[in-house]
C-alpha cells in the first residue's frame, strides 16, 4: 500500500484538499490513499517559508516531491520511508499543492501554466535565471561608454548594443588616411641601344627572326631573277672635242677603252690631212688590237694581224681593213662621232664625206 505510486488525479485531489483546509472529504473510491485523508496533513519537510514564493524551479520541485510523499503515505505506514513521486505529473501536482499554500494575499494558480508562471516569477530573481540575465547584460557592462579608436570587433559590437539600449552613440575609429607618396621623380630616358640591350631575345624570337630574314632574301633573289637582263648602251652619237685637240700624224686612244674608237689625224691615206675614227675591232675574229706608236701600226694580240695607221691590213689573218665610223663637225664646232654607221674601205665607202673631216 505504501509503495503504490500515486496517480496524477490522486495528487491533484490531495493538493486541492490541502488547499481547501484539509477537511475530511470523501476520498475517491478507487484511491487507496483515501484512508489517510481524515488524518491530519503531514508536515511538509520542504523548505517553504510562509509568505515567500519558491526561489527556483528546483526548490519548487523538491518541495512538491516532499509534500506529495507526505500526502500519499498512510498513517499507519508513516514509519516507513516516504516514496517520492517520480513522474512529471507528480511533480506538477506537488507544485500545484505547494502553490495552494501560498500566502493568502496572492491568488493561487489553478492551471499548470499558472503554476509554472508563478514558479518562474518567484524564481526570476533566483540564481538559476541569473546566467541568462548576466549574459545579456554582460556585453553592455563590459563595453566602455565610448569605444575608442582601434577597438576590436567585439568591442565595437558591444558599443553598438549599448547604443541600442539607450547609451551614448559609439565612437567609431577614425577613418585611416592614406599616406602621402613621395613626389614623382623624373625617370631618365634610356637610349635606344640601352633599351635594345635590355631586351632579352628568346630562342623562339631569334628563330622566327632568322626565318624571316632568309625568306626576305629569297624573295629579293626571285625578284631579280624575274627582271630582264638589260645592257645599258651609250648613245651612238657623242662629241670627242675640237679638231685642234688632235695634232697631225697622231693616233688618240682617249676613247678606245670607253667608246671603242681611235681618232686618227694623218695624210697617209690619200695625201690629204684627214681626221677619221677607226673602230678598234679586229676584222679577223673581233679582238681589240693595240696601237704601237713606235712601229706606227695596230697590232692584234689574238692572231697577230697588223694594220697601218690608215687601217689597211698588211699582216696576219685579218681579211680586210679596219672599219671607219661616222665623223663630222657639229654646229658647235666639236667633232661628233656616230657609231651607228660603218664605212668599209673594200667597199669604197671611205670616200664618203661622212667618214672623215678634212683639216688644215
Ligand atoms: Fe685579230 Fe685574229 S682577231 S688577228
Structure characteristics:
360 residues; Rieske Iron-sulfur Protein; binds FE2/S2 (inorganic) cluster; seven-stranded antiparallel sheet; 2 domains; four-stranded antiparallel sheet; alpha+beta
How far is the N terminus from the C terminus? Answer: 185 Å
Number of H/I helices: 9
The major β-sheet equals: 7 strands, antiparallel
By oligomeric state, this entry counts as single chain
> What's the gyration radius in Å?
74 Å
Give the bound compounds.
Answer: FE2/S2 (inorganic) cluster
Overall residue-averaged pLDDT value: 74
Strand fraction: 5-15%
Based on secondary structure, the structural category is alpha+beta
Q: What count of domains describes the coordinates?
A: 2
- Overall geometric form: rod-shaped
Percent helix: 25-40%
Along the chain, the helix and strand elements come as HHHHHHHHEEHEEEEEEEEE
- Give the uncertain stretches in residue-range form: 22-54, 74-85, 99-109, 125-148
Task: Report the count of strand segments.
Answer: 11
